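Encode chain A's predicted structure.
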Amino acid sequence: MKIYVLSHEYCYGDYKYKYKEECRFIGVYLTKKEALNALNRFKKIRGFSSHLDGFYIDKTKINQLGWVDGYRTGYFSMELGMHEEKGEE
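Encoded structure for chain A:
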């Protein structure tokens, strides 16, 4: 069975010293249409409305492992965003 997970995330602050991420789990829906309806309701709420590009909907299956690859080290730079090789900076 497939489900749709609606979340909201945004970043703020100085990337070098006081970088912060705000993440919110909003809900789980049986259809993409229901997830989009919820997104439309939440995008009018203060806090969400100032970061409209922070919404995302993930389609996933229930009763299935979602993370099987283990951990990887990532690096962040303003030019490249997230990347895996330290030498890429």
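The chain is about 10% helix and 40% strand.
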